[in-house]
Amino acid sequence: MSVRRLDPIQPEAFEFSPENLSWAKQIIAKYPEGRQASAVISLLWRAQEQSGGWLPEPAIRYVADLLSMAYIRVLEVATFYTMFNLSPVGRYYVQLCGTTPCWLRGADDLKAVCRKEIGEPGHVTADGLFSWQEVECLGACTNAPMVQINADFYEDLDAESLTKVLDELRGGKMPKPGPQNGRINSAPLGGPNTLQDPNLYNGNYRKVWAGESLGNGDDQAPIKKAKPASVQTGERKPKGAPRGTDASKADEERREVGNVPAGASTPPGAAPQAGSAPGSDSKQ
Fold it and tell me: pLDDT for 257-266, tens place per residue?
């Protein structure tokens, strides 16, 4: 992971707005006494939102004071998680996924568009509208390649469609998030191609399951409800001898094992010889 440092140009101070301060106190109150530090990520995230998408150093100290934490501990959190931007970003912050699925499907073409339309990674355009950064997987691999702009995903992109999205944002419009090639969510291109029988969804197959006909010329054979064969009714024969019927046979086998000729050793686990006392030596 690359070294993450605070921006050299910082504001003089930071404090939550009254609304955000009230929200922060509610979040802190959720944790037991002595565990308020658990709210650090939530508070840093809200501080970043209030600062226009980046986390200035005074905001880090402000959150540390709210949580009674050492400054260095909060700085460790802010510099570890890449969700926190340590330098100013554009009004529209473009996070471009460059991980393998997106790269294989054309992420390099999207990078070229960002360099042309915005500049190098981390650069904020002169009008303050755009900045971009390459990031790791954003979890939309089925719809690769994709970018996240602020809180929205734009998927199934190519150079032309990404340029169009940026142009609409530049013109004050809000392009529709999601796939940009006509795909519906993550369904196959052109629409679903399995489970298309309307009877699956309109309840008609309840009739089939009940043994009735659909009456549309495309009937499925009624499903015959079977019941397991029963020994009591004589529909099936029991496997093996009934329990307890082989007791006499077991006794005979026991007696045969017990009748060991004099002088022979008793097999392990066999019954004692007739007439021998418990614990006596069978070889005598």
Answer: 555 556 666 5
